[in-house]
Amino acid sequence: MITLLMAVTATVAAVPAEVPAAPATVVQETAPAAPEFQALVLPPNTELVVTPNDSLTTKSAKVGDKFKLSTVFDVMQNGVVLIPRGTMGEGTVMYRTGTGAFGKSGKMEVAFNTLTLNGRQIPLTGKHRQEGEGNTGAAVGAVVAVGVLGAFVKGHSAAIPNGQQMRAYTAEPLTFNVPANAARVTTGTLAAVTVASPVATPVAQPAK
User: Fold this and answer.
1) How far apart are CA 69 and CA 50, in angstroms?
2) Per-domain residue ranges for the chain?
3) Under a CB-based contact definition with an 8 Å cutoff, are residues 11 and 4 in contact?
4) pLDDT tens for residues 160-187?
5) Which of 15, 36, 115, 125 has its CA 20 to 30 A from that of 24?
6) Widest CA span in the chain
7) pLDDT tens digit string along 74-111?
8) What are the CA-CA distances from residue 62 to residues 108, 122, 129 (Å)?
9) 62 with 96: CB under 8 angstroms?
């Protein structure tokens, strides 16, 4: 009996005890730092150069017609481009007259409404008036030559072609939040120009 108990005890002692599992290591991911921003304010009445996307002419334009336009140059503040060139917008034909008798030219006036930048509507102000080339000289000549036939001489239509530069203006202050590390546009500087002093030309003395 004693021998049997000793054998059982030896068997139990031979079974290794369970080793507790090591706690899992939790790895915390560091979130990337949020970019820092700075606010740049474009003041009201900032000038923008715009051009119509398609040519406008008094032959086809009507009062109230809308037309597409685009900025010609970048608009910058502190070296940061806030409104890039090619930003599209809209204008309206406000006034229009066709050509008339006696060399009267066509006239047209357009107003600038808005720009659209990344879904943001930027209100604009400003107008541009365009007149066609008159033909009054030919009309006067026709009147002198053949009388009333001068009434059939007409002027030229007014036209604003794509590429013609017009000036619009921002209607209100505009705030832009840009990254603090946004690229700056460095404008070129003119090199100093040295102007040589003129050399005095000797004056010939009259012979004595």
Assistant:
1) 6
2) 36-176
3) no
4) 999 999 999 999 999 999 988 888 887 5
5) 15
6) 163
7) 999 989 999 999 999 999 999 999 865 445 789 999 99
8) 9, 25, 14
9) yes
Q: What number does CATH give the domain 36-176?
A: 2.40.128
Tracing tokens 């009201």 back to the chain, one arrives at: 44
Task: State residue 133's pLDDT score.
Answer: 76
- Per-residue HEC secondary structure of the chain comes to CHHHHHHHHHHHHHCCCCCCCCCCCCCCCCCCCCCCEEEEEECCCCEEEEEECCCEECCCCCCCCEEEEEECCCEEECCEEEECCCCEEEEEEEEEECCECCCECCEEEEEEEEEEECCEEEEEECEEEEECCCCHHHHHHHHHHHHHHHHHCCCCCCEECCCCCEEEEECCCEEEEEECCCCCCCCCCCCCCCCCCCCCCCCCCCCC
Please state, as a whole number, how many other Cβ atoms lie within 10 Å of the Cβ of residue 170: 21
Task: State yes or no: pLDDT of 48 exceeds 60.
Answer: yes
Question: How far from the centroid of its chain's Cα atoms is residue 112's Cα?
Answer: 14
Q: Fill in the amino acid letter for 137.
A: G
